[in-house]
Design goal:
CATH class of the largest domain in chain B: Alpha Beta
Structural class of chain B: alpha/beta
Radius of gyration of chain A: 19 Å
Number of helices of chain B: 11
Order of helices and strands of chain A: HHHHEEHHHHHHH
CATH architecture of the largest domain in chain B: 3-Layer(aba) Sandwich
Strand order of the largest sheet of chain B: 6-7-8-3-9-10
CATH superfamily of the largest domain in chain B: P-loop containing nucleotide triphosphate hydrolases
Largest sheet of chain B: 6 strands, mixed
Helix content of chain A: over 70%
Distance between the termini of chain B: 61 Å
CATH topology of chain A: ABC transporter involved in vitamin B12 uptake, BtuC
Strand content of chain B: 15-25%
Strand order of the largest sheet of chain A: 1-2
Largest sheet of chain A: 2 strands, antiparallel
Number of strands of chain A: 2
Oligomer: heterodimer
Structural class of chain A: mainly alpha
Radius of gyration of chain B: 20 Å
C-alpha cells in the first residue's frame, strides 16, 4: 500500500478517534459519578454544532461563537440534571437512563422546530487551509479537532488528578457513601458531572461541524459512537475510554478503505462484539467495577 | 424549585433549630431517638448527652444498635422519631454532607477509603469540606484556588504525619495493611477538621501493639479538643480511654456512666457484656475462655 494512503488513514483515524474519545468521556464522567448512562449526550454535540453555526451566521467571530455554544451546552447539561435526573433520584438507574432518552427526543424536537431539517456547515476555524504532507491531504480543521481534543483531555486529567474539586468528583465515583461523610455533596458533584459532560459534547459538536456538517438529527448517531468508545475501552476508566475512541476511529478509517461507506458503522459494531467476547468489561476497565 | 426550598429549609433548621428553638449548652444531644426497620426497632427512645472534649464509648452486644446510632448522628439513616442536636443545631433534618460541614465526621468499621486514589489524595479529599474555591476557579487554577490547593496538600501531609503514615502517602490503599488503612481513614476524617469524630469499631482487626498506639492517638486528639464518640466491641480498651460509657441492648440505653461505675457493676457486666469481674478487679469475658 502507498505510504501516503497509510498516512492519510492514520491521520483520519486519529482525528475520528479524538472525536469519539471526547464523546466517550462525556459518558464516562456522568456514569462514574451517577451510574446513569446519559443517552442524550449526542444532543449536546448537536447543540454545540448548531449553536456555533447560528452565532457565526449572526456575525459573531467563530471562536467566540464556539465558546458561547459550548457554555450553553454545558448549562443544558446542568438543566438535564436539575430538571430530569435529580427529581428522579429515588428511581432506579435504568429509569433515569430512560429519562435521558426522553430529554434527547425533546431537544431534537426543539432543534427541528428552530433550525429545520437542513444540514449546516462552518468554515475551518480561522480559515485554516488544507495541508499537504507526504502525499496525504490534511483538511484544515483536522489540527483544530486533534489539538483542541488533546487540550481538553489534558485539562481533564489535570483537573481530576490535581484539584480538590476533581478529587471530590473521583471520590463520589469511587465511594459515594464515604464521600458524603467527609462533607462532599454527591448531588452537587453529579450536577458538575452533567455540566462537564455537556461542555465536552458542545466542544465536540463545534469542532467537528466544519468536517461533518450538523443537523438536528446527528445527536443519536453521536450518542451511539460515544457509547461504543466508552464500552470498547471500559467505561470505568478515562484512559480506557480514550483508547476505545482511538480503536474505533482507527477501525473506521481502515474500514473506509476496505468496505463501502454505508457499512462503516457495522465495522464498529463488529469491533464492539469482538471486545465484549474477549474483555466483557472493556479493554481497560477497572476490575470489579461495572 | 421544591428542591431549592427544601435546601433553604435545611439551612434555616440547622442554623436556628426548628421553630427557632435554641438548645442549652450540651455538645451533642439525642432526644428520644428511635429508628425502626419494618417491625424491628433498632434504636429505641434513646436520650443521650455527650460533653465537649470527652471520649464517649457505646458498647453492648451484637445487634444492640450501636452502629445504627452513629449512622443516625452522621445523617446516613433517617430517624423514625426524636431529635439530634449538635452545638445547638438540629442535625436530624439535614443531609450527611451538611452534617460533615458542621464538624461531624465518621470513620467506618469497613474504612471506605477511595480505592482509585493514593493515601495522600484520600486525605486531601477529606479537606474538601472547608475549601472555598468553587468548581470553575479550581478548574481555571485561579490564584485563590491555587493557594488553597497548596494549603490542602500541607494540611493533608500534616495529618498523615500526625498518624505516622507520611511514608505511605503515595501508596494506594490496597498496598497498606488493615491497620494502616484504618489509620488512613482516621487521617482523612481529621483532614475535615472535625469537632466531633464518630468512630465505628476503631480497634476492630488491630493487634495489641496497634491498639495501644491508636489509644494514644485518640487521647492526643482529645487533648487537641476533638470530641470522640466511638462504638466498640473491645470493651476493655474502650473503658480504658473513655470518660463516658453508654451500654446499649436491643436498641435501648441500659447504662450511661463513667467507666469506673460500669466496671464496678457486676450486674451490667454479666447481663449486657457477657463477662464477670475477677478477684483482681479485671473484667473477664466468657468469650475469651
Amino acid at each position: 500500500m502507498d505510504l501516503s494512503i497509510v498516512l492519510q488513514f492514520f491521520i483520519s483515524g486519529v482525528n475520528l478517534g479524538c472525536i469519539y474519545a471526547a464523546l466517550g468521556l462525556g459518558f464516562f464522567i456522568i456514569y462514574s459519578v451517577t451510574r446513569v448512562l446519559n443517552l442524550a449526550q449526542g444532543e449536546f454535540v448537536m447543540l454545540g454544532g448548531m449553536l456555533t453555526v447560528t452565532f457565526y451566521s449572526m456575525g459573531v467571530p467563530i471562536l467566540l461563537s464556539t465558546l458561547v455554544a459550548v457554555v450553553i451546552a454545558g448549562l443544558l447539561g446542568g438543566v438535564l440534571y436539575r430538571g430530569v435526573i435529580h427529581p428522579a433520584r429515588n428511581l432506579s438507574k435504568a429509569t433515569q437512563t430512560f429519562l435521558t432518552v426522553g430529554f434527547a427526543f425533546a431537544i431534537e424536537g426543539i432543534a427541528l422546530l428552530i433550525w429545520g431539517w437542513e444540514y449546516r456547515s462552518l468554515p475551518n476555524f480561522l480559515g485554516t487551509p488544507n495541508i499537504h504532507l507526504g502525499g496525504a491531504t490534511i483538511i484544515g480543521q483536522t489540527p483544530w479537532v486533534t489539538g483542541i481534543t488533546l487540550l481538553v483531555v489534558t485539562g481533564l486529567f489535570f483537573f481530576f488528578g490535581h484539584t480538590i474539586q476533581g478529587k471530590a468528583l473521583r471520590a463520589c465515583a469511587d465511594n459515594p457513601l464515604g464521600a458524603k461523610t467527609i462533607g462532599i455533596s454527591v448531588e452537587r458533584m453529579s450536577l458538575y458531572a452533567f455540566i462537564l459532560a455537556g461542555t465536552l459534547g458542545g466542544i465536540a459538536g463545534a469542532i467537528i461541524t466544519p468536517l461533518t456538517m450538523v443537523s438536528y438529527s446527528i445527536g443519536f448517531p453521536m450518542t451511539i459512537k460515544g457509547l461504543l468508545a466508552a464500552f470498547v475501552g471500559g467505561i470505568t476508566r478515562a484512559e480506557g475510554v480514550i483508547l476505545g475512541g482511538m480503536v474505533l476511529g482507527m477501525a473506521e478509517a481502515i474500514a473506509a478503505s476496505l468496505i463501502p461507506s454505508g457499512y462503516h458503522s457495522i465495522f464498529a459494531l463488529i469491533i464492539l462484539m469482538a471486545v465484549f467476547l474477549c474483555q466483557p468489561r472493556g479493554l481497560l476497565s477497572s476490575p470489579g467495577k461495572t | 424549585m421544591r428542591d431549592y426550598l427544601n435546601w433553604a429549609k435545611d439551612i434555616l433548621i440547622s442554623a436556628r433549630g426548628q421553630g427557632g428553638e435554641a438548645r442549652d449548652g450540651s455538645f451533642l444531644e439525642l432526644k428520644n431517638v428511635s429508628v425502626s426497620f419494618g417491625r424491628l426497632t433498632a434504636v429505641d427512645q434513646v436520650n443521650l448527652v455527650i460533653r465537649q472534649g470527652d471520649i464517649a464509648a457505646i458498647i453492648g452486644p451484637n445487634g444492640a444498635g450501636k452502629t445504627t446510632m452513629l449512622k443516625l448522628i452522621s445523617g446516613l439513616l433517617p430517624l423514625s422519631q426524636g431529635e439530634i442536636w449538635f452545638k445547638q443545631r438540629r442535625l436530624d433534618k439535614i443531609s450527611p454532607h451538611h452534617i460533615a460541614s458542621l464538624g461531624v465526621t465518621q470513620v467506618f468499621q469497613d474504612i471506605q477509603l477511595f480505592s482509585n486514589m493514593s493515601i495522600l489524595e484520600n486525605v486531601m479529599v477529606g479537606c474538601h469540606v472547608w475549601t472555598d474555591a468553587g468548581f470553575l476557579s479550581t478548574g481555571l487554577k485561579l490564584p485563590h484556588a491555587k493557594a488553597e490547593e497548596k494549603e490542602i496538600m500541607e494540611r493533608a501531609m500534616s495529618k498523615l504525619s500526625l498518624v505516622g503514615l507520611e511514608q505511605k502517602a503515595l501508596a494506594p490503599p490496597a498496598n497498606l495493611s488493615w491497620s494502616e488503612q484504618k489509620i488512613s481513614g482516621l487521617a482523612r476524617a481529621l483532614a475535615a477538621e472535625p469537632d466531633l469524630l464518630l468512630l465505628d469499631e476503631p480497634y476492630g482487626g488491630l493487634m495489641t501493639s496497634e491498639i495501644e498506639k491508636l489509644s494514644q492517638l485518640l487521647l492526643k486528639l482529645q487533648q487537641g479538643g476533638i470530641t470522640i464518640l466511638m462504638v466498640e466491641q473491645r470493651t476493655d480498651e474502650a473503658l480504658e480511654i473513655a470518660n463516658q460509657v453508654i451500654i446499649l441492648d436491643s436498641g435501648a440505653k441500659v447504662a450511661d456512666a463513667a467507666p469506673s461505675e460500669i466496671q464496678s457493676n457486676e450486674h451490667l457486666i454479666a447481663t449486657y457484656l457477657g463477662g464477670r469481674i475477677t478477684e483482681g478487679g479485671k473484667l473477664h469475658y466468657a468469650a475469651s475462655e
